[in-house]
Model the fold of this input.
Amino acid sequence: MKFSDFVAVDAIRSSVKARTKEGVIREMATALVEAGKIPAGDMESIVKAIMKREDLGSTGIGRGVAVPHTKHPSVSRLVGTVAVSREGIDFESLDGEPVQLFFLLVSPPDRPGDHLRALENISRQLRDDSFCATLKQAHAAADIQHLLEEADSHGLVS
Amino acid sequence: MSEQTVVRQVVVGMRQGLHARPADMLAREARKWQSRIELVAGSQRADGKSILEVLTLAAEAGTHVSIEATGPDADEAIDAIGGLFERNFDED
Done:
């Protein structure tokens, strides 16, 4: 699976204003609503579900990256977006480091395979230190979009 | 100090597959041991101590996985990690 298969380009945010875990999740969910990817009426329920998942264990997987996610019946296909925080946010990550790079995923309840393949793609690409660092330094949503496109066309994605 | 490699075959039993939470549990458990821990699924091989590596396996429910432990505490390590699969990482 490629980034372009699930990242909503119009919902990419290069500089989130939030300073908290819930704040950044809310900001990214709002971006997905504004991009028309999730219904406005379901946003609160999606944010709550993502926070509930975080309570089970942080999705801050290390390297300054977090993958907050949930299953939700309001989507019929996997949707996601990317955000960068300049300052970094305390996400109770596994390695204790603040998180600067976020991939938020909302998947239909009956498609666990798609969710796994999105996680696989994100993890695989982020093993590349320069890709990871360049994304965190991106100053505009368009830059992030181009980096993801580049990873899609040149990366080791299966 | 022996450098034996111990191998155990397991199957991913969780309906959601080896997703972020079990991958985290697995990497945490693997890091408790001195031995090198690797997971092999199909043609893919991953360092069991890295959640990022484990996630690149994208192991769905029903996937056969070989756990390979190499080092002085390989037996104990493989029991601990095999045990996580046996109890489906406490889910489902």
The longest strand of chain B covers residues 5-11. Residues 25 and 89 of chain B are 8 Å apart (CA to CA).
